[in-house]
Amino acid sequence: MTENTPEMDSVADRARLTSGADTWHTEEAAGTLPRLMLSDGPHGIRQQREGGDALGIGDSVPATCFPPAVALGSTWNCELVQRVGAALGEEARAQGVHVLLGPGMNIKRSPLGGRNFEYISEDPHVTGEIASAMVDGIQSQGVAATPKHFAVNNQESDRMRVSADLDEQTLREIYLNAFETVVRDARPWALMSAYNRINGDFASAADWLLTGVLRREWGFDGIVMSDWGAVADRVASLHAGLDLEMPPSGTDDQIADAVRDGALEESFLDATVERLRLLAERVALERTQGYDADAHHAIAREAATESIVLLRNDGILPLDADRLERIAVIGEFAAVPRFQGGGSSRVVPTRLTPALDAIRATIADRAEVTYAPGFGAEGEDSLIAAAVETVRVADVALVFLGLPDHAESEGFDRTDLDLPFAQLRLLQAVTETGVPTVVVLSNGGVVSVSDWHQSVAALVEGWLLGQAGGEAMADVLFGTGAPSGRLTETIPLQLSDTPSYRTFPGGAGHVRYGEGLFVGYRHYDSADVEVAYPFGHGLTYTSFAYEDLEVARVEGGGCRVSFTVRNTGERAGSEVAQVYVGRDDARKDRPIHELRAFVKVHLKPGESARVERVLPSRAFAEWDLSHDRWNVTGGARLIEVGGSSRDIRLSTSVDVEGDGFVNELSPWSTIAEWRAHPVGGEMLTKLMGGFGAGVADRAPELLQMVLQIPLIKLTSWGIGLTVENVEVMAATANGDRSE
Ligand code: BGC
Predict the structure, then answer these.
(1) Are strands 531-533 and 491-492 parallel, antiparallel or unpaired?
(2) Nearest residue to 443 via CA among 468, 462, 420, 423
(3) pLDDT of 9 strictly over 70
(4) Residue 40 CB–ligand 1 contact under 6 Å
(5) What is the mean pLDDT of residues 85-98?
């Protein structure tokens, strides 16, 4: 056979399909595969204009800029996020986009993460739920969602090479958990692999990850595409389960050659082509005619309103415009909003109303609104002086502070949590006037507030709120909207309190996840570290009571948790009721409690709702390192219900069934392990006779010591035990178990 026989051509043809046609399209195959268009992004379509530069950042077709993930996560409202996803899907269809590159869903391991604005939470449960809702929404329109970046991509520093080094339990429970939820519950048609390495293996070439965990264990049947430029070795990646290299590097012949010379079995190539075919079948190919931009702006506004987290309020909010004569709006972010983050997710919005304009529109002529930028390019001192003059004659100062674009973005991490010094000086000068001050923050990653938050009357976390953020903020400040966001990440007092402080972002090509499971509140709450604002926190303009917690075991090892939430205040509002599972024992190797369910309820004054959530047995499981499996040990657990990880209102203990798993015994199993085994324990008792009991009486410390000794070591103790005996005992114990 020559190089040009049809069979050879067909391998080359198929190999051609395993990388893009260009930066934003897949290859087509006549009659079988249509050309698909891919586009960022997670909170708005960033479709590059024809003929633009390869990345097209900043030059894309206008699209609704919804709140980025940091804000959407703070809504804790899956139904709303689903609608945002559907609107994104609709816009994608109208722009001829078949595959949307989002949601971003890596865990916020450190508040310094440069891309935290694109991610949902420090907690895998809320991440998994919000991301699933987003995937559902996008795919409901016939557009493929692409959760990213799979996996353990928790920093920007050295992101294309760094090896995230972590143990399997931390990997499973914290960093893969949300992806598992999304894959199992929302069934995305595509997934994007990460740039980084995990314990030395490139995520984009890790067979154990892309095939073992993702496809075999979780049943993923979509395509895996690389992050842009993440592939180092085409053949290794395809073999590992990566279907599509993006953008193309012009190396498809490496795949074809590997198949031809037998280094890569043809079945791998065929499986990839089959998956690409399935993707093309799943997505809706025909382009739709436009979308209702006003309706989408309204969804963006609703989402932005629910994203705003009221951190602190001495009662000044909501502002009553009829009782104020003059309102001073200070800070450049009020006039030039920072509403999204930098990098590949950047959208050109369809419209944008700065908060200052929205405030003026809300107030109409009920009060005078004055403005001073307070900081910016001009001289610092004169800007501050002008701001102070503006504030002095006002009844209230609304000070818009935050992180400038250059302080956080995709591509690099922050090195501190501070607001720019000029802004802190401005704030101090404003609060020193004695005029009540409300601070509104615009930031993608959390900033430190501990030095100044007690000096202000109210503090509003406005994140990056998308194109309707200005209107949403005016709604919340003046009470036409109610704040209902909650923190999905802790605001620490200081950087050195953060659990990854000593290891983030690592060096010499490695970052060691030394804090293990203790990420975010799992650390602060377990170690009792004081924080500025805890995970789950957010105030409203009303108050809520929790009553009548009931917990009942259900079939399959889970339990049903029900309780009543009552609006005890005078205004309508939404509560995010959070259910945590804690341990009744004193184990220090596990977080003191972990979020396992939540529900957002909207209640009128005096109204109450009975809430019910079923926690599956997995809510009580931990990853068992010695047996590579999820393991539920029977015993007492605490069920805690409340308004934040530090505001637990009700709790009760429940006895959870174990999953019945019994460890296999080996000659190297310890005496303690033998004793715990249903069959092995009896055999040991017979063998040792009264030895254990006698020792326990005479010298309890000796028993403690003996418990840790592998049984095989006792063969040299002169008690008649031989290696053969021990081997037979282990085989019998294990055999009996399987009967
Ligand atoms: C980012 C991805 C993005 C891709 C395409 C990469 O640099 O990490 O999130 O989807 O570029 O713009």
Answers:
(1) antiparallel
(2) 462
(3) no
(4) yes
(5) 98
Question: With a 6 A CB cut-off, is 228 part of the ligand 1 pocket?
Answer: yes
pLDDT at 663: 87
By alpha-carbon position, which residue is closest to atom 2 of ligand 1? 227
pLDDT band at 692 (very low <50, low <70, confident <90, very high): low
For this structure, is 227 an active site residue? yes
Spot the catalytic one: 40, 123, 227, 252: 227
Q: What is the pLDDT of residues 544-574, one digit of tens each?
A: 999 999 999 999 999 999 999 999 999 999 9
Number of alpha carbons in the 13 Å side-chain half-sphere of residue 304 = 33
The answer to whether residue 52 scores a pLDDT higher than 80 is: no
Q: For every residue of 47-116, which 3-state class applies, written as one string?
A: CECCCCCCCCCCCECCECCCCCHHHHHHHCCHHHHHHHHHHHHHHHHHCCCCEECCCECCCCCCCCCCCH
Phi-psi region of 160 (alpha: psi -120 to 50; beta: other; left: phi over 0): alpha
Task: Output the CA–CA distances (angstroms, integers) from residue 209 to 242, 516, 617, in the order listed.
Answer: 10, 19, 24
Nearest-atom number in ligand 1 for the CA of 146 is 10
What does the pLDDT average to over 303-309? Answer: 98
Quick check: CB of 344 below 6 Å from ligand 1? yes
Q: Report d(CA 147, CA 144) in Å as an integer.
A: 10
Least confident of 154-168, 260-274, 305-319, 679-693: 679-693
Q: How far apart are CA 533 and CA 121, in angstroms?
A: 15
Report the candidate in 375, 404, 377 with the shortest Cα–Cα distance to residue 387. Answer: 375
Closest residue by Cα to residue 638 from 591, 560, 581:
581
Choose one of 101, 195, 246 to mutate for the ligand 1 pocket test, by most ligand atoms within 8 angstroms of C-beta: 101
Rama region for 143: left / alpha / beta (φ>0; ψ in -120 to 50; rest): beta
Q: Is 141:92 a contact under the CB 8 Å cutoff? A: yes
Ligand 1 atom having least distance to the Cα of 55: 12
**Given ligand 1 and candidates 227, 231, 410, which is best to mutate, with the most ligand atoms within 8 Å of its CB?**
227
Tell me the Ramachandran region of residue 115: left when phi exceeds 0, alpha when psi lies from -120 to 50, beta otherwise: alpha
Ligand 1 near 275 CB (within 6 A): no
**How many C-beta neighbours within 10 Å does residue 508 have?**
8
Cα(445)–Cα(117) distance, integer angstroms:
6
Token pair for 295: 């309706």
- Work out which ligand 1 atom sits closest to the CA atom of 23: 5
Token duo for residue 404: 């400038």
Buried b (16+ CB within 10 A) or exposed e, 572-605: ebbbbbbbbbbbeeeeeebbbbbbbbbbbbebee
Q: Do 58 and 134 meet the contact criterion of CB atoms below 8 Å apart?
A: no
Q: Is residue 739 over pLDDT 60? A: no
R_g over Cα of the chain: 29
Please count the residues of the chain.
739
Give the pairing of strands 38-39 and 99-100.
parallel
User: Of all atoms in ligand 1, which is nearest to the CA of residue 101?
Assistant: 10
**DSSP type of residue 619:** G
Residue-level pLDDT at 1: 40
Q: What does the pLDDT read at residue 264?
A: 98
